[in-house]
Specification:
Order of helices and strands: HEHEHEEEHE
Shape: elongated
Strand order of the largest sheet: 1-3-5
Oligomer: single chain
Strand content: 5-15%
CATH topology of one domain: Ribosomal Protein L15, Chain: K, domain 2
CATH class of one domain: Alpha Beta
């Protein structure tokens, strides 16, 4: 056996349908397109979503909801998490959190939330903070600085 005597299995290859090549071919004259009409014309036909002129399904169904293009998505962190990860007097900022692999993924503004307890004084720099988180950090002797986006 060599490359020169290889051939496909019998019946695995079909002859191409050659349309519009005369009456003897069986596919002549109208070239399998029938008589006249939009689908018989060159470039004719309708898109798959066309519903014969009736109101399309996408326009019949009710639309729901609203997506605010100006919404700010924050990377959130709780004060309880800060207490576990940092020691007394440490500085906490988005850059430091990213280096410590606490914040991952695409960079987003940082917001500190008030879940958990904190007993150590931290210098926190963030883009936003909840009222309860600010109270807990300041009650523990820490400071909060809001940085701009």
């Amino acid at each position: 056996m060599s490359l020169s005597n290889l051939s496909p299995f019998p019946g695995s290859k079909k002859k191409e349908k050659r349309v519009g090549r005369g009456p003897g071919s069986g596919h002549g004259k109208t070239a399998c397109k029938g008589h006249k009409g939009q689908k018989a014309r060159a470039g004719g036909g309708v898109p798959p979503w066309f519903e014969g002129g009736q109101m399309p399904i996408l326009r019949r169904l009710p639309k729901r909801g609203f997506k605010n293009p100006f919404k700010i998505e924050y990377a959130v962190l709780n004060v309880g998490d800060l207490a576990k990860k940092f020691s007394d007097g440490a500085e906490v900022s988005p850059e430091i959190l990213r280096q410590a692999k606490i914040l991952k993924g695409t960079p987003k503004p940082l917001k500190i939330l008030g879940d958990g307890e904190i007993k150590i004084a931290l210098k926190v720099k963030c883009h936003a903070i909840s009222k309860s988180a600010r109270e807990k950090i300041e009650a523990a002797g820490g400071t909060v600085e809001i940085i701009s986006r």
